[in-house]
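Following up on my earlier thread - several people asked me to post the actual chain instead of describing it. Fair enough. Here it is, all 121 residues.
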Amino acid sequence: MAVNVYRWSELPKESVRQGVSRTAFRGDGAIMVMNWLEPGMEKKPHSHPFEQLAYILSGRVRFEIGDDVVEAGAGDVLRIPPDVVHCGEALGDEVAVNLDVFAPPRKDYLHLTEYQEADFT
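Reply from S.P.:
Thanks for posting it. Predicted structure:
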């Protein structure tokens, strides 16, 4: 078995919409999704059947999770329960970077990890 090491900054990025981009890295049982949220980005409330763990690496993010509104900054972590409508937006004039973890891996995000195909064959 060969072990590959990757650098977040060199992984292929996907533009989700104006002001939001992401990339991902996965294992057999989980996927990590790195998000870049730019000031002025459009909020997009949504829900999904996955539990989401969010870790803020830099900047500040305002999350709307169900009826709750919370702000999180670098070093903060939070949980978004499955099937709860939520969204986030960058605060201030700094790009916010957050890492989301989903287990099991979201099938709708697997295209972000196509570069890893050799790791699983």
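The chain has one domain: 8-108. That should answer part of your original question.
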